[in-house]
Specification:
- The chain is 29% helix and 19% strand.
- The chain is an alpha/beta fold and 568 residues long.
Length: 568
């Protein structure tokens, strides 16, 4: 898909100033990675009289299908026209709008460090989009752009030039001409291209309201087609549409009274506002793990692959857990965990409850035997698939805690992150990421081999199409009621000494180490899953049912296995 921006100039104000505003040099051809392909920026012409910047977006249709799993993302019908043959690589849509925001981010914000005086200048602009889907036809195109001061040419494209009797398609060739600040022009395109296409390629989350209002500031409040724009941009999610319309009305009233919107909408004292803020996924994950451990009445707990000790710290805050052992192969991670937990300054009674030891989960370790529960939180995906059987035996076959909790990313949820490039896993050290079906198959086979029962639950908002961002498996030794024998009635002969073991070769290897514990998403705390409720939305009994996604193998089959092999 293709878009050009052209301006004219003179000797006093050369047209090549466009390069400063776009932050892209006219003498270079540059390329950028986007969520669903590669964006190229080049200048077909660049001199003092006339300068044209072109944005060419190459969409990878296979990656687009894989990310959407063959379904229309966010209810987008066009993604289901044909799994691999559709108009997405050719027609301007929300894919191009996202590329505009990514590639020309500074220009859209009205920033120009090298020539700040250019930002406020009105430029003669000509914008061409050769193929634009227009649900509503040329008439709607004019209704959307003409109130913004553009002279509009919206030429319908025939279905087939060879057969003119077939009539026109729903696509138009769009040409906009007018005098406008470049930042305003880019914001018009960012909002109205997906509005005309009426089929967003990504899930419309609550933060889309803020994006719309930022891009629409200064023009959307008074646009005569405001309701159409808001409804289509937010994919007809009526709760979000209502929220956006209310905020736009507030902006209109504030402008009429020549006051700030905050002065009108002042009925709530922000300092006294107790509205719950979004909860990061890492916090939800720890809450879910703690809930399982409480229900299992575990007292002595292993945190396998403890990383920097976040879960260990959460366990220490609850008196139920009388002995907590953090295990990690990385001495650097253990030192950081010790620093974070302030073990040296911790009261003796508290410090007696916790130990940090170095060990590899690829080998059996007698120090890990005899515990009530073990946790593998965001660990298995860091292990090469060929070494998963060794980890399985070390935990389930040798250590054999009565309860095991395993959490891992749900790769199906990755499509909900617009900023995660197609085909990428959430973290560079992930050897694979499982679908819900693959994870459940692996967990059930592990349970069957070692005499455990397993149930499943979501962590984070449970999306009806792609499931939760994190998936959790709760293993219980077969025949047990989930309760533990209390520490007071159990021998500790197998628990090992309280001193850390010495360092060994490969201490900085990542196997068995929970890397970036607090960052399950590509942009950590501001991903879509943070905006949901604290509750997971269903009980453990309900969550053990079959997943809608079919099983496609276990042990990481079919998943990426690239990356350095973790050291023993």
């Amino acid at each position: 898909m293709f878009l050009t921006i052209t301006t004219t100039g003179s000797a006093d104000r050369p047209a090549t100033d466009l390069g400063f505003l776009l932050h892209k040099h006219p003498d270079k051809a540059q390329q950028f990675s986007t969520s669903h392909g590669t964006a190229h920026v080049l200048y077909p012409e660049a001199d003092a009289q006339r300068c044209t910047a072109a944005l060419l977006l190459e969409v990878d249709p296979i990656a687009l299908v894989r990310r959407s799993r063959g379904k229309g993302r966010g209810g987008a019908p066009d993604s289901a026209l044909g799994q691999y043959v559709n108009d997405r690589p050719y027609a301007a849509s929300s894919l191009l709008a996202v590329a505009l925001r990514s590639v020309f981010a500074s220009a859209m914000k009205g920033q120009c460090t090298a020539r700040p005086e250019l930002v406020a200048q009105t430029l003669p602009l000509r914008i061409e989009v050769p193929v634009l889907p227009a649900r509503g036809g040329s008439a709607l195109v004019r209704k959307l752009f003409e109130p913004l001061g553009w002279r509009v040419q919206a030429e319908p494209l025939p279905l087939d030039e060879t057969f003119p009797e077939w009539g026109d398609s729903r696509y138009v060739r769009l040409v906009l001409e007018g005098e406008c600040r470049l930042a305003e022009a880019l914001r018009h395109l960012y909002v109205l291209l997906p509005v005309l296409d009426d089929a967003k390629h990504y899930w419309v989350a609550p933060d889309e309201v803020d994006k719309l209002l930022r891009a629409g500031e200064g023009w959307l409040e008074s646009h005569p087609e405001q309701r159409v724009i808001v409804g289509r941009y937010l994919a007809r999610r009526w709760s979000l549409t209502r929220q956006a319309m209310e905020r736009l009305e507030l902006e209109r009233l504030a402008e009429s009274d020549d006051v700030a919107a905050e002065e009108i909408d002042n009925a709530v004292d922000e300092e006294a506002d107790t509205e719950e803020k979004p909860v990061p996924l890492a916090v939800r994950r720890r809450e879910a793990i703690l809930a399982v451990l409480r229900s299992a009445e575990a007292a002595r707990v292993l945190d396998l692959g403890c990383g920097q000790g976040q879960l260990v710290g959460a366990l220490l805050e609850e008196g139920q857990f009388t002995e907590i052992v953090g295990v990690d192969v990385s001495m650097r991670a253990l030192h950081e965990a010790r620093r974070r937990l302030r073990l040296e300054r911790m009261p003796e009674r508290q410090s007696e409850r916790v130990r940090l030891v170095q060990g590899s989960l690829a080998y059996t370790d007698s120090r890990l035997k005899g515990y009530d529960a073990a946790v593998l939180s965001e660990v298995v995906e860091h292990v090469d698939p060929a070494r998963l059987p060794a980890l399985e035996y070390a935990v389930f076959g040798s250590a054999r805690p009565r309860t095991v909790v395993v959490t891992t990313p749900n790769v199906e949820y990755n499509v909900r992150w617009e900023s995660l490039p197609a085909g990428r896993v959430r973290h560079a050290d992930h050897r694979f990421e499982w679908t819900r079906g693959e994870f459940r198959q692996w967990a059930r086979e592990v349970a069957a081999r070692h005499g455990y029962e397993v149930s499943f639950g979501p962590v984070g908002p449970d999306d009806p199409e792609v499931g939760p961002p994190t998936q959790l498996a709760h293993f219980r030794m077969a025949g047990e009621d989930g309760g533990s024998r209390r520490a007071s009635g159990r021998s500790r002969e197998d628990s090992g000494s309280r001193e850390d073991s010495g360092s060994c070769e490969g201490g900085d290897s990542r196997e068995g180490s929970r890397s970036r514990e607090d960052s399950d998403s590509p942009e950590d705390s501001r991903s879509p899953e943070d905006g949901g409720s604290r509750e997971n939305g269903r009980s453990w009994a309900d969550s053990s049912s079959e997943d809608s996604a079919g099983s496609a193998g276990c042990g990481g089959s079919g998943a990426s296995t690239t990356g350095k092999e973790a050291a023993a």
